[in-house]
Amino acid sequence: MISEGDYVLIMLDPRRTWLVRVEKDKTLHTHKGVLNLGELIGRNFGCKIMSSTGAEFFALKPLIRDFVMKSKRITQIIYPKDLGLIVFLSGIGPGSRVVEAGTGSGALTMVLAHYVRPDGHVYSYDVREDVQKVALENLKRAGLSDFVTLKLKDITEGIDERDVDAVILDMATPWEVVPHAYESLKPSGVFISFSPTIEQVKKTVSALRKHKFLEITTVETLMRNIIVEEDRTRPETRMIAHTGYITFARKYTEV
Amino acid sequence: MISEGDYVLIMLDPRRTWLVRVEKDKTLHTHKGVLNLGELIGRNFGCKIMSSTGAEFFALKPLIRDFVMKSKRITQIIYPKDLGLIVFLSGIGPGSRVVEAGTGSGALTMVLAHYVRPDGHVYSYDVREDVQKVALENLKRAGLSDFVTLKLKDITEGIDERDVDAVILDMATPWEVVPHAYESLKPSGVFISFSPTIEQVKKTVSALRKHKFLEITTVETLMRNIIVEEDRTRPETRMIAHTGYITFARKYTEV
Amino acid sequence: MISEGDYVLIMLDPRRTWLVRVEKDKTLHTHKGVLNLGELIGRNFGCKIMSSTGAEFFALKPLIRDFVMKSKRITQIIYPKDLGLIVFLSGIGPGSRVVEAGTGSGALTMVLAHYVRPDGHVYSYDVREDVQKVALENLKRAGLSDFVTLKLKDITEGIDERDVDAVILDMATPWEVVPHAYESLKPSGVFISFSPTIEQVKKTVSALRKHKFLEITTVETLMRNIIVEEDRTRPETRMIAHTGYITFARKYTEV
Amino acid sequence: MISEGDYVLIMLDPRRTWLVRVEKDKTLHTHKGVLNLGELIGRNFGCKIMSSTGAEFFALKPLIRDFVMKSKRITQIIYPKDLGLIVFLSGIGPGSRVVEAGTGSGALTMVLAHYVRPDGHVYSYDVREDVQKVALENLKRAGLSDFVTLKLKDITEGIDERDVDAVILDMATPWEVVPHAYESLKPSGVFISFSPTIEQVKKTVSALRKHKFLEITTVETLMRNIIVEEDRTRPETRMIAHTGYITFARKYTEV
Q1: What number of C-beta contacts closer than 8 Å exist between C and D?
Q2: Domains in chain C, please, with CATH?
Q3: Which residue out of C17, C86, C88 would a mutagenesis test of the D interface target, given it has the greatest number of D Cβ atoms within 10 Å?
Q4: How much is the pTM?
Q5: Chain A touched by C236 (CB under 8 Å)
Q6: Order of strands across the sheet with C7-13?
Q7: Tens of pLDDT along A75-133?
Q8: Distance from CA of D243 to the nearest CA of B (A)
Q9: Has residue C109 got a pLDDT over 90?
């Protein structure tokens, strides 16, 4: 049931969606007419709602993916195809403690927080106060700010936390963080870095090899949308050809 | 710290790994000598262990991915690239209630259970008793059996649960489950199907269009391994070119 | 040496090019100033030419690829990645006799003509007079019209030529041409069809299986552009994800 | 019609083929029985031939692709997906003069020779006498040796030919050839290099930028086989994920 204060994803079609907070006297203005959001209160998520011009919209319960795709952005965000794989490879789950940098718009932060709930925690480093402000807003909207500590600190100068399950990086110079990640990770902990260029990957892998990391592997993923029609099924003409490389490693220890 | 009864992932190199239970007098025989697993008790996860012939192995804490890749299999399992995306698109997380079919070897079941802990639950349908027996074994090994109810039932004849967050299918005839999924899902809930062939996708999409589902989309992912070497960086020569298509939809409701 | 009447590819940069005929008093107007094309006469292909505003352009000798990419289009054209593979798989070369349909804008026609020169020939079928007019213009510009016979005929009603080396189709209903292709091809000749949708492929493959064709295979290709920079090498963000499937087969005979 | 001395591609199925010369009393021994090749004389290419055990084979006219795939190899050969694109991008055709290095097993040499016939020529450099011997054999088998001059010379020390249409490289250090390629190419001529690693690409692109080359571009291609069946159409499970990068450039000139 939709309550006042809930966020809903208003959908006209998959390409035209709005993530809005439901309030009694609030309206949403679209090119297909005005929606009276207040009338959603007490109805089901997933319900149909008509605009002032009679266009049909739907009020969906936002998924973590919707919070990500609709986050306020002042930095590039990581795509679903990469987010899903990063989380899965990292091994994190409910209860995990994770260090992340940079916070950026908080898209990855949100996703990590979503999965470590209710007992885990995300420590997210960034040197830019403005981006952390946006990230906090995005986290609050998704109801995930309690599971995150935003740290206005330069992670290349050190990580405060110890015995964390994973260090996950999406930043310009991940290789500078490798020694700190080693100190911060618990033995057998996971290092993951997401980088757009091959030079970043090479420097990061080289740094990992100089420390006690094993199973150092780099992958890239591609995702294609398939148009499914009775008589003209085919992949979409265009796709995102490259987002970034994911580098994975695990910490080992002599003792 | 490794305790008796813990599972460890013994790694010689990324391609030669063993998932074993640590017991006092247990040994692991490899082509590089014998490991005395008992000597791991009290040591750190991630520690080095030498075989009888002096070869170096590591005893890692298994990640959910390791439990998946090392699961006993009597059916084809879904690959990490797909598992990560299925979980992410489904929107599930701690607390979610999920219906799954077929159980198969329980690889996807394990993954879903991992993420819905500690308050969520997975209801997994399969008509084959033998596969559910194997799945149970795999779930127990991963410490996840408490979060799963294995149901020896034909999901094409109906789903018992109501108001679930997601219905996730990896089976031969997903289109036959679409009407039941609609009944079982809570409004705004997510339907996901994973199918290797385009004909399965077409039939499933066609069934979804006949029911109240929206944002019906189909994607496929490709993952390439990158070999990173100082002077010969390049994608690996071979890759998995196709596993399956992921079809996603959300339930809507008139009221 | 550039002579009057030659075509040159004027290039400002790889994304801003013009295919023009050199004439004594002709000018080319661009957003970077006016070029006096007459001054190219007597100079080398590949030479630099300055515009009225001092911008640097180059006057390249057009390659077959340039004639294709710069052809006047009233239909979708096949991409280089597919053209190269179609020609290679077809086995054609100097001296080959090829049947093609539909003519469309003549892009594929041009390419086939380019490779069968000087003794081979291309018979190109289309039912639309307007497209053949454009195709003829494109072929003349590339100096290839002598190697092509444009036939204003419906190829689904039959092929006039016999003992041809290859039948190459880029049209909506290739499966309707399969019986005619069999009649037209010399024994061991090659059938190739390029189709955007999987349903077209299925119908064509099914038709091929009903006739005496073997080695029936279907492929698709993907091409990524790589950005090569000293410190930020990476695939381009976007790419063409799908153009069409290429289906190949060879005719066999009992006797 | 098959004559004595002709090469035929004997095909049991697409994965089991033999490229053999037809001689009166010659036999081909396979695991499905013995074929009497002499009985092919006077029959059609593409005809059926039965083995001693009654298995059905076909005697196809070899395409240039068959000569490539069946060439005797002592080096890695370039795949069809790359060969087709290299030829197309290079702009060569009947009459072109091309410099190539290294000769290797002559697969690319063969392909280039096939397309420059009857008036063009390929100059192929290699420092290894043994590979050129094999290449010559392969070229003779394909009837293409007249269109090729094999040069036992180190191309990194210079190219003898002038005013060639294209320089096409498949060798370990293509960047060392860039200055010589510039001297050898006619203005507006095409440079192409095929390299498996990103470091080779970076060095080559860097060398091209130091000389008068423009439109310097690098691409990679992927090819997937599609299994087309009435009710289980899907891409093949495995594919070649990487062969090499193709770098293209054109020579310009100040005058």
Answers
A1: 202
A2: 7-62 (3.10.330.20), 66-251 (3.40.50.150)
A3: C88
A4: 0.96
A5: yes
A6: C16-21, C7-13, C56-60, C47-50
A7: 888 999 999 999 999 999 999 999 999 999 999 999 999 999 999 999 999 999 999 99
A8: 6
A9: yes
